[in-house]
Amino acid sequence: MKRILTILAVAGLALGVQAQQYSNYIGLNLGGGLNTMTFKPANGTQSLGLGFDGGLHYAHFFNEHIGLGFGVHYTYANSYALYNFSEVTSGLTHADNPNIHYNLTTRFNNWKERQTVGIVGIPVEFFYRAALSEKWNFIGGLGVQFDLPVHGNYSAVDGDYTTTGVFPALGPYVVSDMPEHGFSTYSAAHDAKIDNLSNVVVSVVADAGVRYDLGNHWGLYLGVYGGYGVTDMLGSKKDDIMLVINSTDPTQLDYHGTYGSNEISSLHLLRAGVKVGIDLGWNCRDRKAERLAAEEAERLARQKAIDDSIANEQRLAAEKAAREKAEADRIAAEKAAAAEKAAREKAEAERAAAERAAAAEKAAREKAEAEAAAIEKAARERAEAERLAIAKIKAEAQQKLEAIGATVYFANAGTEAKFDEKTDAAIHAICAAMKADNTLKVTVFGHTDNTGSLQANMKYGQKRAEALKAYMVKLGAPAENINCESRGPNEPVADNSTEDGRAKNRRATVELK
Question: In terms of Cα–Cα distance, which of 412, 362, 366, 104 is closest to 245?
Answer without folding.
Answer: 104
